[in-house]
């Protein structure tokens, strides 16, 4: 009878510990889920936010009619994505760089 009571008590303690561990795990999952519910950051729009930076800094050479337009057209998002941060040799403003980085980091 003593062994049966000890076994029952042990099972109750194990159940309580398991339940507590599950509650802690669930609260961590709940917190992670809440973080994932925050709205995703909007990818900077190429035509309205990125292209104007390059028009201001890289015209006339890299736009229609420019000397190197055929090799590196900066009015096309593919060129910007391909060149990446190499473009920062001409773009010195940190706010503009940050915006370009956001554009490059998006899938």
Compact overview of the structure:
The chain is an all-alpha fold and 107 residues long. The protein has 4 helices and no strands.
Task: Report on this structure.
By secondary structure, this protein is mainly α. The chain folds into 2 domains: 1-38; 46-105, no CATH class. The protein contains 4 helices and no strands. It has helices at 2-36, 46-58, 77-83, 94-105. Helix 2 (46-58) packs across helix 4. The model has no long low-confidence stretch (mean pLDDT 82).
**SS field, number of helical segments:** 4
How does the overall form come out from the CA principal axes? rod-shaped
Q: What share of residues are in beta strands?
A: under 5%
Q: How many angstroms separate the termini? A: 66 Å
Secondary structure: helix percent: 55-70%
Query: Structural class given helices, strands, pairing?
Result: mainly alpha
Oligomer: single chain
User: How many domain regions?
Assistant: 2
| Extended strand count | 0
Radius of gyration: 29 Å
Unreliable residue runs: none
What kind of sheet is the major sheet?
Answer: none
Tell me the series of helices and strands, N- to C-terminal: HHHH
Mean pLDDT: 82
């Amino acid at each position: 009878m003593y062994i049966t009571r000890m076994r029952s008590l042990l099972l109750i303690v194990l159940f309580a510990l398991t339940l507590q561990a599950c509650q802690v795990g669930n609260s961590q999952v709940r917190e992670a889920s809440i973080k994932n519910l925050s709205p995703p950051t909007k990818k900077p729009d190429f035509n309205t936010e990125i292209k104007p930076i390059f028009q201001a800094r890289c015209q006339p050479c890299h736009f229609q009619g420019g000397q190197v337009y055929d090799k590196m057209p900066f009015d096309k998002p593919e060129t910007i994505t391909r060149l990446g941060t190499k473009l920062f040799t001409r773009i010195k403003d940190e706010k503009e760089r940050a915006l370009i980085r956001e554009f490059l980091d998006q899938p």
